[in-house]
Amino acid sequence: MRRLLPGRFLILALLVGGGAVALVVGFHPAWAIDPLRAAAERILMELGAGVVPIALWGLWVAYLLIYRTLALFRRWRWVLGSAAVIAALQGTLGYVDAGLPLVGTVSLGGEAGAAVQGENTALGYLRVVGLWAASAWVLAPSLVRRVLGRTARGSVQAYRRAPVHRGIGWTLGLAVRQAAAPLRRVRERRRGTKLARELGSFLDANPAPPKEQPEATPEALGEQATAPDPPAAEAEAEAAETPDPPKPEASAAPQAARAEAPRARAAKSSERWTLPSLDLLVPGAPASAVTEEHDATARLIESALAEHSVEVRVAEIRPGPTVTMFGLVPGWQRRRRPNSRARDDAGGGEADEIGNRVRVDAIIAREKDLALALAAPSLRIQAPVPGESVVGIEVPNRSSTTVAIRAVMESPAFRSLAERDGLPVALGLASAGEPVVVDLVDMPHLLIAGATGSGKSVCISSIISSLITHRQPSDLRLMLVDPKRVELTPYNGIPHLVTPVVVEPDRVVRLLRGAVQEMLRRYRLLEDAGVRNIQAYNRSPKAAEHLPYFVICIDELADLMMTSGFDVEQVLCRLAQLGRAIGIHLVVATQRPSVDVVTGLIKANFPSRIAFAVASQVDSRTILDAVGADRLLGRGDMLFLSSDSPKPRRVQGTFVSDEETERLTDHWRQHKPIEVPEVPLEELAIAAEVAQAEAQGNEPLDETDSLYDRALQLANTNGQISTSLLQRRLRIGYPRAARLMDQLQDEGIVAASAEPGKPREVLHRPSG
User: Fold this and answer.
1) Which end of the chain is more exposed for a tag (fewer CB within 10 A), N or C?
2) Which pTM was predicted?
3) What structural domains and CATH numbers belong to the chain?
C-alpha cells in the first residue's frame, strides 16, 4: 500500500471537517449543535479573545513541524518569542471586560489571562510587563541591548542636569525614540530609493543636452533652483583665488604654491570626512578550537585508509568556519623479503622487512572511500598543501559558522593593509581559520562566478562595505551596475557613487564608454606630470588635481552580454587592460560561467577570480581552469584564485546583513555634504561619439532640424539603422528613439525588426 504523505493527511482532514460543518449547517442536529455550543462556550471562557492569536500560532507551528521541520529549530527565537507575546497579550487582555458571543460580558483574557496575572494585583502587573520584556528580548536581543544601553547613558546625563521627575520622562521618551529608530531608517531609505528611481525614469524619458543638465541626484534636484552654474561658480572661485601675476625675479615661489594648491585643497577636504565606526557592524564569533569530535574524525581517517593498505598519520588539525583541514603525513608500505644468508637445513629462513613511502596518488585514489567512511557530502584534497609537506583533506563541518565582516576587519592583517594607500577588502576566513584580506589595487580586477544563491551578491556587498568603511569619497568613487534592481540599490545616496545605481542595461554601455574616456583623460594627466601610476601622480607637485580610485562593480554580466555582448566585452577588456595604472578597477559577477559569457579575452584580463558553487566541472574549468568548484558547499563557500598564486584557495566569505548595510549607508547619507569631484560619464561618452562621427567624415547634423528630419538624414547616409544609433547621433533617450524607429517603419523607410537589438535594413533612401 502506498504510503500517504503528511500533506495528504491534511487534505483528508480538511475534507472530513468541511463535510461535518456542511452537515451541521444544513440539518442542525441537536446531537451535534449542543456539544459544539458547549465546547465554544468553554473555549471562550478559558481563552477569551486570545483564542484567535493562539489558533494562528498553533497553525503556524504545525505547518513548520510538518513541512519545514528544520526551520522550526532554526527559527526557535520566533517560536518562543511569539509564544511569550501571546502570553503577555493574554495577561493584558485580562484587565479588559467586553461582550463576547455565546458567553456575554467577560474578561477578554479569559481564565488564562487571570492565571497569568495571579492573585496579587501588583505582582500581576510585574508579570505582564516581564512577559512583554522577555518577548522583546527573545525576538530582538540586539535592538533591546542597544536601546537599553543608549537609554541608560542618556538617563545618567539627564539626571545630573534635571530633577528626578523630568529625568524619568526624558528616559521614557528616549527609549521610545530608540526603539522606533530602525523603523524610521527603513522608511527614509525606501523614500530615498523611490525618489531616485522616479528621478532616473524621468531623466531617461526627458534627456537634456549634456552641458546644461546637472547631475541627476536627489540633492541636486533640491538645490537646482538656488545653486549657481557649477562651471561658472568654479571659474569665479578660481579667479578669486588666483593671485596677481608675479614679477620675473620672484616667479619660483608662486609657481610652487600653485602646484601645491590642488593637494592642499584635497587634504583640507579629506579632513572633514568621518569614516564609519566598526561598532556599526556585528561582532564575529570566536575562532573554532580542536574538539574531541575532530580527534575522532582524525582516527577515522587513519583507520579508513589503513583498511585499504594506505598508512597515514594525521599530523595537524585546522578547524575552520565551514570545513576542517586534516594534514596527513604519508606512512610506509611494508613487505617482507627472504634473507638468503640465513637459511636452515629444512630450507626455511628468516626474512627482512623493507618498506616504501606511500604515494600521494594512493591517498587521492581513496577519496570516495574516505567520503563514505566520514559520511561527508564531498571532500577536497590538496596534494600537497602549498608550502608544507603534508596532504590536506578538507572535511565539511556538521554545522557551519557565519563569518562576520567585522571579525576580519579587526584582524592585524587587515589593519596593516588598511594603513596603506590602497583598497582593502575583507574577503573571509580560509579553511584553517586564518583571515584572508586582499588589496584590490594588487589584484587588480576580480571576476566572480557561481550558481544562484551561492553567495555572489553577498560577496560584492562585502567588497563594497569594506571599501566604503575605510575609504572616503574623495579617495574612492564607485559605479554600481545592478540589472536585478534589488541587490545594490540599498547603496543609493552615498557620496561615493558617481551616478545612482544603474539598473537599465541600455545605459551600461554608454557609461562604460564614458569610463574609457575618463581613463584616457587620466592618462593624459599622468603624461603631463611625467609619472607612471596614480599613486605617484597624487604625490607629485605637478598634479593638477587629486585623482581618486574608481571601482566599477557589475552584479550580473550574463544579462549585459545577452543585450549587447560585443560592446560590453570590448569596453570591459579595454578597461581591464589599461585601467590599473590610473586607478580604475573592475569587479564583475555572473551566475552563468559559460564560454559565451566569460570569454577568453575577459578571462585573460581578469587574473584574480572567485568561484562559488557551480553545477558542473565544465563551469569550474571555465572560471578557474581547474575542477573543484562543483564540490563546494554553497552559502559563501568559495575558491579564490589570486594573480600571485598558482592554485586556488578555499575561503568562507564574509557575511554582511541588510541591517549592517543600512547602518553603513545611513552614516554616509547623514554625513554633512562635502563637494567631491564629479565624473560625468555620459557627457564624456557623448563627446567621444561626436568626435568619432566627425573623424569618420560624416556630415554633421543640423541642430535646428526636427528629430524626424534628422532621422531621415541618417537613413539616407547609412545602409542600416538601429535604435542605439539614433540615441547616439540624435542625443535622445531610448523611448524617443524607439518611437522614431516605429515611425520610419510605418513610412516604409526601414524594414521590420527580424531580431530585437539588431540593426534594420533601409529599404529605400529618402530623397530629402
Assistant:
1) N
2) 0.56
3) 24-139 (no CATH), 292-335+356-396 (3.30.980.40), 405-669 (3.40.50.300), 698-761 (1.10.10.10)
DSSP annotation string for 532-560 = SSHHHHHHSTT-SSPPPEEEEEES-HHHH
Strand partners of residue 639: 611, 650
Give 391-437 pLDDT, tens digit per residue.
889 898 888 888 999 999 999 999 999 888 889 999 999 887 889 99
117 SS3 class: helix
Strand (E) or helix (H) holding 507: helix 505-529
Q: Which three cell numbers stand for residue 655?
A: 557575511
Q: Using one digit for the tens of pLDDT, what is the confidence trace for 742-763?
A: 888 888 888 887 666 678 888 7
CB 609 within 8 A of CB 447: yes
End-to-end CA distance of the chain: 83
- How many Å apart are CA 278 and CA 707, to the nearest integer? 54
Output the pLDDT for position 420.
Answer: 86
Residues 663 and 672 sit within 8 Å (Cβ to Cβ): no
Q: Coil, helix or strand for 327?
A: strand
Q: What is the DSSP string of 17-44?
A: HHHHHHHHHHH--HHHHHHHHHHHHHHH
CA angle 677, 263, 241 (to 5 degrees): 80
Closest CA to 490 of 188, 283, 183, 219: 188
Higher pLDDT, 352 or 733: 733
Per-residue cell: 596: 559565451
- Three-class HEC string of 660-712: HHHHHHHHHHCCCCCCCCCCCHHHHHHHHHHHHHHHCCCCCCCCCCCHHHHHH
Enumerate helices (H) and strands (E) in the chain, giving the number of each: 28, 19
Which of 394, 435, 401 has the alpha carbon at shortest distance from 322? 401
**422: which residues sit within 8 A by CB, 6+ positions away?**
439, 440, 441, 442
> Can you tell me the distance from the alpha carbon of 203 to that of 201, in angstroms, rounded to the nearest whole number?
6
Helix (H) or strand (E) holding 143: helix 141-161
Four-residue CA torsion sign, 20, 26, 31, 33: positive
Q: Please state, in angstroms and as integers, the Cα–Cα distance from residue 288 to each residue in 97, 189, 291, 449, 634, following that order.
A: 55, 37, 9, 28, 20
How many other β-carbons are positioned within 10 Å of the β-carbon of residue 415? 13
Sign of CA dihedral 188, 192, 195, 197: negative
Say if residues 657 and 411 touch (Cβ distance below 8 Å): no
| Cis amide leading into 444 (omega within 30) | yes
Which amino acid appears at position 370 of this protein? L
